[in-house]
Design brief:
146 residues, single chain
Length: 146
């Protein structure tokens, strides 16, 4: 059975976010599912709401968070269920030109997929009740329960 959770979803710029039910995609082998325990509101989130920073909509904002690992894919390394974690808004692939040169802030995958609000593989990790994909800001979408 698919995991359903609540998230604050922005459907249109300059409108309030609404709490909606979101269905998570099945966990991929290297992915980790985190139950969000705290999330910060950043000016970047406000820029998306106001429309001065454009991202695809609908979107779950939030990219500063901490939580507890709820599920771990079979090929994920370094964490286990129950671990307390801080989530990074700047993940990196570990193998592109910049990652190989110890400059992950310039990761080609991050910079290429980040503005699309999709995962590194180009896919989405959640859907709204009406079946539409919901984007996640900076790979996280931490204004959700997961």
């Amino acid at each position: 059975m698919a995991l359903q959770y609540r998230a604050a979803v922005l459907q249109a710029v300059q409108t309030p976010m609404a709490i909606e039910t979101v269905t998570a995609a099945p966990l991929k082998s290297t992915h980790v599912l985190v139950r969000i325990r705290a999330a910060g509101l950043c000016h970047t989130d406000l820029e998306v709401i106001e429309g001065s920073l454009r991202y695809p909509l609908p979107i779950v904002l939030g990219h500063e968070a901490a939580g507890v690992v709820a599920q771990v894919g079979p090929a994920a390394r370094g964490v286990k269920v129950g671990d307390h974690v801080v989530l990074s808004w700047n993940p990196h692939c570990g193998h592109c030109f910049y990652c190989d040169r110890d400059a992950p802030i310039l990761c080609e995958e991050y910079l290429g997929q980040g503005p699309k609000a999709v995962a590194f593989d180009g896919g989405n990790r959640a859907r709204l009740a009406d079946g539409r994909d919901v984007q996640q800001l900076m790979f996280l979408g931490s204004f959700g329960e997961y």
